[in-house]
Amino acid sequence: MIGYVTFGTNDLERAAKFYDPIAAEMGVGRMMEFDSFIAWGQAGGGAGIAATKPFDGKEASVGNGTMVALQAKDRDQVKRLYDIALANGGSDEGEPGPRGEPDENGMVFYAAYFRDPDGNKLNAFLMDKA
Asked: What InterPro entries does the annotation carry (predicted)?
């Protein structure tokens, strides 16, 4: 089981301004905080997200092909998370909408994609009736 996923940042204050409102929309807050590290989530809950300055002191960089998916409760929350991300320094990687064709149960992958201010890629998603 994943406890939390960490993104590197070169500006922890800027990362906090981006992730604080996203965490609030997901119903959680900061669960750990140090001078160079902040983690959002709920102890004993689902996986959290953290932002950290790299321990080796080098610049943080984006992992090509790396993405964290935030499970939303409904399509409205997908849209709210996308809007929150863009309003707090994030950039668009794909507006909210269905992706692909419905599966054999009539469910479709519904998602929005965005990047944080450091360029790390995230999405908000759910499986929903087509």
From this structure: Glyas_Bleomycin-R_OHBP_Dase (IPR029068), Glyas_Fos-R_dOase_dom (IPR004360), VOC_core (IPR037523)
